[in-house]
Amino acid sequence: MGAQQTVLFHSTIFGPIHSRRLGVSLGINLMPDDGKICSFDCLYCEAGYNSQGAGKSGLPSVEQVAQDLEKKLSDMKRKGEPLDVITFSGNGEPTLHPHFPEIITKVTELRDKYYPGAKISVLSNSTRIFDPAVAEALKHVDNNILKLDSAINPTMRLIDRPNDPSFTVEKVVESLRQFEGQAIIQTMLLRGEHNGQIIDNTTDEEITALIEAYKEISPREVMIYSLDRSTPEERLVKVEREEMQRIADKISAAGIKVQPF
């Protein structure tokens, strides 16, 4: 707990696990298996803070990802196990891997070979969509799930703590428009406190700003969710189901498809 919370995934391929958003999910961790590398340092990250360091294992190669995934998929297929989705997640931001586009190509080939009915999902914090090669790769996955936790800069900075001081809501919303209805936007709703600062991205002002941003982005859908596991900042509070539904209703009334989780 607290500052001691550390990375969750100690391998490149993990699971399958049951995801409340995606179903039976086999995970791919493109970050080190003994450390964390991310372009955000979110207060709620279940893998802990970036200060734990990048570890010593380094990033897996394209070949290692492909070999480990093929071994797991062939094993699951042989046993007749179901699979709904292959999900890029793990100990940090998957699109930071320098060979992310090639890995997407390899994973797609293996999915087509073993589980053609399974979807490929990428959970990304949206910091690398300014790179044309990354953006192009994301356009080829089934579920391109991109983060927007607040449409108000000070709140976004407080919750997500981006490494890049030039990263702004305006820039990311503008860049998210390139996906033209193909992106799924994911928003973490929470309240709490950090270093004496109050956090709350559920206020009327915050939700109104998010709705305006969603309208500009025109996503395929919006996923709103709240805390499900322990967080490195212990003074965060989960938004309960009933309130999540009220917020979802507001978003839906603006003509945006939304799912609360």
Lay out the secondary structure.
Layout: E1 13-19, E2 23-29, H1 62-78, E3 85-89, H2 100-114, E4 119-124, H3 132-138, E5 143-147, H4 153-160, H5 169-176, E6 183-188, E7 190-194, E8 197-200, H6 204-217, E9 221-225, E10 236-238, H7 241-253, E11 258-260
Parallel strand pairs: 2-3, 3-4, 4-5, 5-6, 6-9, 9-11
Antiparallel strand pairs: 1-2, 7-8, 7-10
Helix pairs in contact: 1-2, 2-3
Strand line-up in the sheet with most strands: 1-2-3-4-5-6-9-11
Please, what is the average pLDDT? 96
Rg:
18 Å
Quick one: how many beta strands? 11
Stretches where pLDDT is under 50 for at least 5 consecutive residues are none
Q: Beta-sheet strand percentage?
A: 15-25%
How far from one another are the termini?
24 Å
Structural class: alpha/beta
The coarse silhouette is globular
Alpha plus pi helix count: 7
Helix content: 25-40%
Task: Give the helices and strands as they follow along the chain.
Answer: EEHEHEHEHHEEEHEEHE
Largest sheet: 8 strands, mixed
